[in-house]
UniProtKB/TrEMBL annotation:
Subcellular localization, as worded in the UniProt entry: Cytoplasm
Documented EC number(s): 4.3.1.3
PROSITE patterns in the cross-refs: PAL_HISTIDASE
Alphabetical keyword list: Histidine metabolism, Lyase
A Pfam family of this chain: Lyase_aromatic
Protein name: Histidine ammonia-lyase
Catalysed reaction equations from the record: L-histidine = trans-urocanate + NH4(+)
Pathway: Amino-acid degradation; L-histidine degradation into L-glutamate; N-formimidoyl-L-glutamate from L-histidine: step 1/3
Main localization (coarse): cytoplasm
Family from the record: Belongs to the PAL/histidase family.
Organism: Arthrobacter caoxuetaonis
Length: 515
């Protein structure tokens, strides 16, 4: 159970609700804070002077004062008109993360909604009812207006949703099936439900969780490639890394050292005849690139923490009871780091693809068959697997083009600069899926190369961690042999990466888990 008070949610709580269906409840402190701020809003509703969002129109229509008898219709019309998304349906986990983040802001007591609104939102989450939202509609300024409006529309019993089983239906039908009543919004409440950066923050939180797994997996993949290409582990020494005290770099180098510990292949290479002075950059500089990505991730975590501690709405009810307009709904901080992470993901994937390519070129693979084919010429081995990697990496480079620099004005020039953070979040999600697939192909390739080096798991010369990782891969992918249908093997390796199973395997061998 995730309890929402007036403080910040933990990242793990957001992931638990978004992905695992964890239940939520409002803390007593949140109820008291909401009741206090609602008293402020109701006093303004009775005032003869106009107050934005309470007794006026919205955006460029804020100059029009709304009569008391029209204010329920004002809130209803706001939600209906702003629920204007289109395109492919957004993933359920993104919508649930968005909803939880909005509920967390409502619980701070800074938005002025009734407790009943927050309770209805919590009930929607707990019932597993997920509004259907199209991927297009948010400019990331005045928050994620269209996506959040679809959620508010569902509270009203309108629009399309999916129930807990994933079945699409009308919101009214889903509410009735869950024993819930549609909500009628009052002054300020429609605006409070849609004026936040909750969608982009949800995508950032999920991406951070995924990148922690993927960057450590990248270290694992690099280590197996160093081993399979008969490289050296000397360059990963702690004292060499300390000469450039980048914390992310040190973490990646330590991971690679720990994975390679006890490798007979590395030991034999050190004691053998002189071959080459140093490895290629894609092997030797893996900690520098992976470490830079880790440092970027650390910055993103700082930004996300600030956002989770925020109460974003416009206008906002201040602690001392003022109702003030502000610009905190602008998504620039989140949009920037979503873009930064897409750049890092593209570069990590690019280096992974280069390591894979070295395995397949007999001029650079140090004794392996061309393309790791069983019978080169008759067989093509992993030739086209690298093509698949290259295609993904090319797309990741396109996805690394920042969305946050592409402001476009809206609302009759009232909203004349926007963040495009929602778009940055969607493209990062696609980029991380691509990164996982690229790393899966590298691991599949390095495992094949190591099998060809030492004859397979039974006679393994690789490090204990590498051997166990290879064993896990061999549970779902056959050992090297004549060409066979490759797509299912790539998908199986992708599932091992995306589920975290390969990391679990590695950590099961080590005394201390990988960073």
């Amino acid at each position: 159970m995730v309890e929402l008070g007036t403080g910040a949610l933990e990242p793990a709580e957001i992931v638990a609700v978004a992905r695992d269906g964890a239940q939520v409840q409002l803390a007593h402190e949140a109820v008291k804070a909401m009741e206090a701020s609602r008293t402020v809003i109701e006093a303004l509703a009775a005032d003869t002077r106009p107050h934005y969002g309470v007794s006026t129109g919205f955006g460029a229509l804020a100059t029009k004062q709304i009569l008391p008898e029209q204010r329920t219709a004002l809130q209803r019309s706001l939600i209906r008109s702003h629920a204007a998304s289109t395109g492919a349906e957004v993933d359920r986990e993104v919508v649930r993360a968005l909803m939880l983040n909005r509920l967390s802001t409502l619980a701070t007591g800074r938005t002025g909604v009734r407790t009943a609104v927050a309770e209805a939102y919590a009930a929607l989450l707990n019932a597993g009812i997920t509004p259907v939202i199209g991927e297009y509609g948010s400019l990331g300024c005045s928050g994620d207006l269209a996506p959040l409006s679809h959620c508010a529309l569902a509270l009203m019993g309108e629009g399309r949703v999916r129930d807990a089983a994933g079945t699409a239906m009308g919101a009214g039908e889903a509410l009735a099936a869950a024993g819930l009543e549609p909500l009628e919004l009052r002054e300020k409440e429609g605006l409070a439900l849609i004026n936040g950066t909750d969608g982009m923050l949800g995508m950032l939180t999920l991406a951070i969780a995924d990148l922690h797994r993927l960057l450590t997996t990248a270290d694992l993949a690099a280590a197996l490639s160093v081993e399979g290409l008969l490289g050296t582990d000397a360059v990963f020494a702690a004292d060499l890394q300390a000469l450039r005290p980048q914390p992310g770099q040190a973490e990646s180098a330590a991971n690679i050292r720990n994975i390679l510990a006890g490798s007979a292949l590395i030991r034999e290479q050190k004691s053998g005849a002189f071959t080459r002075v140093q490895d290629a950059y894609s092997l030797r500089c893996a900690p520098q690139v992976h470490g830079a990505a880790r440092s970027t991730l650390a910055h993103a975590e700082h930004v996300a923490a600030c956002e989770r501690a925020s109460a974003i709405d416009n206008p906002v009810v201040t602690v001392d009871g003022r109702v003030e307009s502000n610009g905190n709904f602008h998504g620039a901080p989140v949009g920037y780091v979503l873009d930064f992470l897409a750049i890092a993901a593209a570069d990590v994937a690019s280096m992974s693809e280069r390591r894979t390519d070295r395995f397949l070129d007999s001029n650079r693979s140090h004794g392996l068959n061309a393309f790791l084919a069983d019978d080169p010429g008759v067989d093509s081995g992993h030739m086209i697997a690298q093509y698949t990697q290259a295609g993904i990496v090319s797309e990741l480079k396109r996805l690394a083009v920042p969305a946050s620099v592409d402001s476009i004005p809206s609302s009759a020039m009232q909203e004349d600069h926007v963040s495009m953070g929602w778009a940055a979040g969607l493209k990062l999600r696609r980029a991380l899926d691509g990164l996982a697939r690229v790393l899966a192909i590298e691991l599949l390739t390095s495992a094949r190369a190591l099998d060809m080096r030492d004859g397979g798991i039974g006679t393994s010369k690789s490090a204990p961690v590498s051997t166990e990782v290879r064993r896990t891969i061999r549970e779902v992918v056959q050992a090297p042999g004549p060409d066979r249908y490759l797509a299912p093997e790539i998908e199986a390796a992708y599932l091992l990466v995306s589920s975290g199973r390969l990391l679990d395997t590695a950590n099961g061998v080590l005394a201390e888990p990988l960073n």
